């Protein structure tokens, strides 16, 4: 494969730019309800399955505990989640939604609809884009494991 080092030909740059643009599209609406984008992602995971360990959240979000722990701590201070140590392993921390965290779900649905409206892309394209992005993650994970 011939290396084409022009910026506009880089897959990594296209993914980076798309990620920044999509995060920015959420920023203002999330700030209005007191959330950052990473906090929103944590809530999405917990709305899907409440009561996850920090390890489970980290795996779902591709974050290490050094990044995730301060994020969860800020969310706990804001009253969105609570943390507890359960079972025999004192190192295992479980994160649970509070009533305030659950209450944001409806507003998050409105925010997501507004962002999707801004995208103005056919749903089939969004499904394909998500599939391709997941393929990139999987391929790079496999390559890193070798």
From TrEMBL:
<dbReference type="InterPro" id="IPR036390">
    <property type="entry name" value="WH_DNA-bd_sf"/>
</dbReference>
<dbReference type="Pfam" id="PF01047">
    <property type="entry name" value="MarR"/>
</dbReference>
<keyword id="KW-0804">Transcription</keyword>
<keyword id="KW-0963">Cytoplasm</keyword>
<protein>
    <submittedName>
        <fullName>MarR family transcriptional regulator</fullName>
    </submittedName>
</protein>
<dbReference type="InterPro" id="IPR000835">
    <property type="entry name" value="HTH_MarR-typ"/>
</dbReference>
<keyword id="KW-0238">DNA-binding</keyword>
<dbReference type="GO" id="GO:0003677">
    <property type="term" value="F:DNA binding"/>
</dbReference>
<keyword id="KW-0805">Transcription regulation</keyword>
<dbReference type="GO" id="GO:0005737">
    <property type="term" value="C:cytoplasm"/>
</dbReference>
<dbReference type="GO" id="GO:0003700">
    <property type="term" value="F:DNA-binding transcription factor activity"/>
</dbReference>
<feature type="domain" description="HTH marR-type">
    <location>
        <begin position="8"/>
        <end position="138"/>
    </location>
</feature>
<dbReference type="InterPro" id="IPR036388">
    <property type="entry name" value="WH-like_DNA-bd_sf"/>
</dbReference>
